[in-house]
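Re: the 298-residue chain
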Amino acid sequence: MKKVIEVAGLTKTYTKEPVLKQLSFSVERGEIVALLGKNGAGKSTLLNILLQMTPKDSGKVEILGSKQLKNEKIGVMLQNDFSLERVTVKEIIELWQSYYPNSKNYTELLQIADLADKQHTFLTKLSGGQRRRLNFALCLAGDPELIFLDEPTVGMDVVSRQKFWQQIKSLQALGKTFLITSHYLEELQEIAQRFLILKDGKLAFAGTLQQLQQGHQVVTIRFDSQLDQSLFAELPGVLAVEANAGSYTLKTTQLNQCLPRLIPYLAAIENLSIEQGSLNDLFLELTGGRDDDKTARI
């Protein structure tokens, strides 16, 4: 497979504070890769370096086989939408088309934005979700090979989000490559082939969801029983046992070892259920808790 992003030994420091520390990874053609991390983990800094908006301190960064960006082959949808006074949807699409010698046609871009009935509407009159869809269409104007999406579905309603991810899958089928950051982990769980998880400027994980589950999955086992709590606390891999009036909740990282040890007690157990953690649960487990600071975006 052809590597469209290649990073090796990347470092970046702000005011003597290291933000990225010897970061190395690659993204291959046709992949949808999710970039995750708590606020302050280094996601925005990494994106800015990849897009040559921020200089690196050291390390190797190549995009589409080159150290210089091939702008006509890259599409970027940043988190913050722009808005111009007295400019219509039609005018902004035509302006973006003019930047590329082989732009997608106007009708296709308008369809991607799903704004056929808003062609002559000023940008300032669009809703947040409509602006996001328009921004996505603009980032595809040059028919790019590699597409960067930063919080792409913020402000979209449920239907628009579903349509958006369907568009991503269709574009992937054409060989397009995506690097996506988003706080909506349940969406990324359904769309991404691989996950890059940053923690304190380092790559804490790089791989598939299955690999993440195998290495960091926390499984919840629930049941009712009158047996003593101490019996379950001794099971292998049990991280915690909660008991409330005969209702038990066990959390374990070793389901395959824990379940066989429950067999001798099955006659005294009722309402047994097993729940595997979501990508959000795995993310919190790996990064060390919830991210309550929504303002820092280093």
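The first strand starts at residue 3 and ends at 14.
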